[in-house]
Amino acid sequence: MTFQSEARRTEASQAACAVLAEPRARLAAQRSTRRLRFSPKYGSGPREVEVDYLWCGAPGAPTVIVQGGISADRDVTALDGDAAPGWWQALVGRGAAIDLERWRVLSIDWLSPDRLGAGSVSSEDQADALAALLGELGIAQAHAFIGSSYGAMVALAFAARHPRSVDRLLLLAGAHRPHPLSTAQRSVQRGIVRLGQASGQADEALALARQLAITTYRGSAEFGRRFAGGPEWREERFHFPVEDYLAHQGRRFVERFDADRFLALSESIDLHDVQPEQIPVPATLIGFPSDRLVPLADLCELQRRLHGPATLEVVESPYGHDAFLKEPEQLAPLLREALA
Question: What pLDDT is recorded for position 219?
Fold first, then answer.
C-alpha cells in the first residue's frame, strides 16, 4: 500500500464528493479523510484517528465494503479519468461483478501504529475504524463486507464486533486465524527487515522480504511453468530464471511501501484471532487448493464453526494465494451470486 503523505491527504479531503456525470448513470466518488474516535486494542484508551477512504458508486445505492491484502489501498477501483487502475479493477466497476451502478463501494487505507498512537495494530482496530466510518457516513448497515486475504480477517473481526452493521460476508483466502507455518514464513520476513533496519539497509531488506513473500503467494504449478529454464552466466555468477522476476517484485514494493508499515501489517496478520462461533452473519467463503498461506482445511474449519449459515466455494487455480487477484473470470459469478 502507498503510505499517504500529509499533502496527499489534504488534497484528497479538498477533492471530496466529486460527482462524475455519465450518460447511463451518475456515479458519485468521495475520496477523503475522516477523523474518527475509537479505542485501539493495543493503545491506552479512546483516541481520534484519521482514516483515509474511498466511497464510490451510484448515489443512494447500498454500500458494499471491499478490503484487500496488506499491500492493497483504498483505491479498489479507478473511476473514469483516473490514471491507474485500482487493485481490483477487473471486479469492481460499471457493469462488473461488483457493479458500481448497483452498489456503492467503501474501502479504507489500512491503519498503522503511527496513526493509532499504539505499539501494534490489530484486525479489530481496522474493523472498528470501518464501523465508525459507517456511522459518520450515515450508513446503518452495509449490504456486504467483501474481504480478501487480510481483508477477510478484518471482515471476520468486523462481523464479530459489529454484527448488526453488515448483512453478509464474502471471504476470499482468509480465515479466523493464521496458519502456524504461514506465521513462521512471515516471521522470517520481518526478521530480514529488522536486520536491514539495524544495518542501515532497510530498503534492500524490505525488497528481499518481499521476494520471499512472493514465493508464498504463488502456487508451485505457476512457478514450475514460468521458470523451468536453466541458469545463465552473467555478472560473474549464475542467474536463475526466477531471480529477475523476484528482484523486480522487490523493487516495485519498495517504491510504494516502507519498512515500518510492512512490519506492522505483517504482524497484524499473525495477531489475528477471531472465534467463529461469535459470528452470526451469513458468509460465503472462497478458497483455493493451491493456496499455501491459507490452506483449504482452515476454511473448512471456519465454515463448520461459524454460528451463521456459511457456504464454501472451491476455485481451482495455479496462482495460489494470489488467485483472488488473478482469477476474475472465475470469481465474478460467485461474487454476483453472493451479493444478490
Answer: 84
Residue 211 amino acid letter: Q
| CA nearest to 56, candidates 31, 33, 80, 89 | 31
Catalytic position from the list 52, 75, 291, 322? 291
CB 209 within 8 A of CB 190: yes
Q: In what order do the strands lie in the sheet with 104-108?
A: 18-20, 27-38, 47-57, 104-108, 63-67, 144-148, 169-172, 283-287, 310-314
Measured CA to CA, the distance from residue 340 to residue 336 in angstroms comes to: 6
Rounded percentage of the chain residues whose pLDDT exceeds 90: 82
Annotated catalytic residue, options 162, 176, 272, 321: 321
Active site residue 322: no
114 included as an active-site residue = no
Catalytic residue among 32, 123, 149, 268: 149
Report the range of poorest mean pLDDT among 6-10, 154-158, 321-325.
Answer: 6-10
State yes or no: is 149 an active-site residue: yes
Taking only the tens place, the pLDDT of each residue in 306-322 is: 999 999 999 999 999 99
* Grid coordinates given for 314: 472451491
Residues 269-304: b if buried by 16+ CB within 10 A, e if exposed: bbbbebebeebebbbbbbbbebbbbbbbebbeebbe
Query: Using CA atoms, how far apart are residues 54 and 105, in angstroms rounded to an integer?
Result: 8
Nearest to 35 by CA among 22, 53, 19, 18: 53
**Which among 46, 112, 128 is positioned nearest to 73, based on CA atoms?**
112
pTM for the whole structure? 0.90
Three-state secondary structure call for residue 306: coil
